[in-house]
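WARN no homologs supplied; continuing
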Amino acid sequence: MTKPIKINNFIYFLPSIIVMIIIFFMSNDPVSGEKSSRLIELLYKLINFFINYDFNEYYRDLGSFIIRKIAHISEYMILTLTYYLAISKNNFKNYNFKQIYFYSGLFAILYSISDEYHQTFVKGRVGTYEDVLIDSIGIFLCYFIIKLYNKN
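OK structure emitted
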């Protein structure tokens, strides 16, 4: 049986807190979809300029969707990693990799749920369980990345 978690060094959680603040402010932006659409449109113009290929509306929408979901996956992969590093640096000598990762993933999924809930209060935004599932992909990818890193 393991002992309850005790946080010995709060400073290690500073990166996690910074990532959570960034996610919060990105979620709090009612026009974030428009901003990302402009960036994606710029990307399409660059592609058209360099290879002279013009995407039709279907591929523009599909590309926009994919890029936004990759952003979800990436931000929660980073958040999970910061949790993992913070927890593992806090002298959890009785905890193995899976236990530390469990808490990291749990904190990240709880933050994802709270973030989607928060978005239901932001004008122009909606919170969806689908985004929580997509965020979970990032959480699980982080597990495999850490596992590969630990093998080497």
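The CA atoms of residues 28 and 122 lie 6 Å apart.
OK
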